[in-house]
Amino acid sequence: MTPATVPALPTDRPPRGVSAGVPAPRTPSDAGSGTGFDPGLDSPTDTLPLRPPPALRTPGAAGSASVRGLRRLAADATAVRGAGSGLALAVADGVGDSAAAALAARLAADVAVAAAPRIGSMHALLAARDAVRLEPGADDAVMVVAAGLAGGGWTVSWVGDCRALLVTDRGTELLTHDHTVAQWLRDRGKDQDGTEIVPAWENIVMTTVGSAGPDTVGHARGPAGPGTLVLVSDGVHRTLDEETIAFLVRRAGAPARAARDLVDAALATGSHDNASATVVPLPDQWAVR
Questions:
Q1: What is the CA radius of gyration of the chain?
Q2: Is residue 13 one of the residues assigned to a domain?
Q3: What are the φ/ψ torsions at residue 219 (nearest 5 degrees)?
Q4: Bridge partners, 52 (sequence order)
Q5: Rounded CA gap, 229 and 245, in Å?
Q6: What contacts 186, CB < 8 A, 6 or more positions away?
Q7: Do 227 and 282 meet the contact criterion of CB atoms below 8 Å apart?
């Protein structure tokens, strides 16, 4: 991705959304933490069910997975810390394919989940900003962070194009709104007036961890009730649509396997990017009404 507000020349990238075919479930023998997807392990034979099974039901038990894909370096990071109302989780995506980008993502995710239980997801993201700015070897990143509130409930905050989705028995809700040039143009109806929104603009982020401020960080309160929270980098959601993400999460039966299936499926369906996911059934303290 490119931290800029000026559209770049179009480049090829995988199509948004995939067909109904998705990789078959992983088995315990191939559920390790490798760095890529071996197409020989699975075959895309399953189809989306007409009546999906319920969302995951082990509150507070999170699972994460991250793969390098076809990039030179792994510059995504995931982090989970705490439990119950003190649970916090983050997915960060370094801007660029460099060690400095990877450091920024790792630092941002770790600082955010350490701070969020005390100061909330928005201020935790701003704390991550300060840490990234002070680290001489760090470049920049985008990130989504979710955290519980002391009195019950939860919030999610983000910059850039990492996403948070809530999978429930009723369907799937996208909780975040991409901070990209392409989305900025769509929000202003440019896709309806004949303006061409070229694929490269999906990758040009308008907010980052390093440039975050109270007025530019996206922030939302999480819906009440049970569900499974899914945080993903753009290496996942650029190739897997919301229906496919929900299907994989429901089918997996466990958060760690769900996260791994998401990144495997992203690579199998054409993602060239780092791909990362964190999955957690909402703790009881988060689901209060």
A1: 18
A2: no
A3: -150, 135
A4: none
A5: 11
A6: 197
A7: yes
Burial of 167 (0-12, 13-18, 19+ CB in 10 A): buried
Tens of pLDDT along the chain (289 residues)? 655 433 332 323 333 333 334 555 443 333 333 333 333 333 333 444 444 455 565 666 899 999 988 888 999 999 999 999 999 999 999 999 999 999 999 999 999 999 999 999 999 999 999 999 999 999 999 999 999 999 899 999 999 999 999 999 889 999 999 999 888 888 888 766 677 777 778 788 999 999 999 999 999 999 999 999 999 999 999 999 999 999 999 999 899 999 999 999 999 998 888 999 999 999 999 988 6
Residue 205 gets which letter from DSSP?
Answer: E
Inside any domain, residue 82: yes
What is the C-alpha to C-alpha distance for residues 259 and 41, in angstroms, rounded to an integer? 17
Query: Which tokens hold the place of 3?
Result: 């931290």
Cβ atoms of 156 and 175 within 8 Å: the answer is yes
Tell me the angle at which helices 255-268 and 242-252 cross, rounded to the nearest 10 degrees.
140
Which residue range(s) make up the domain with 98?
Answer: 53-281
43 lies in a domain?
A: no
* CATH number, domain containing residue 210: 3.60.40.10
Cα separation of 243 and 232, whole Å?
14
**Distances, alpha carbon 86 to alpha carbons 21, 185, 213, in Å:** 38, 37, 24
| Domain tally, the chain | 1
Both structure tokens of 121 = 């997801």
Distance in Å from the first CA to the final CA of the chain: 38
Contact 76, 92 (CB under 8 A): yes
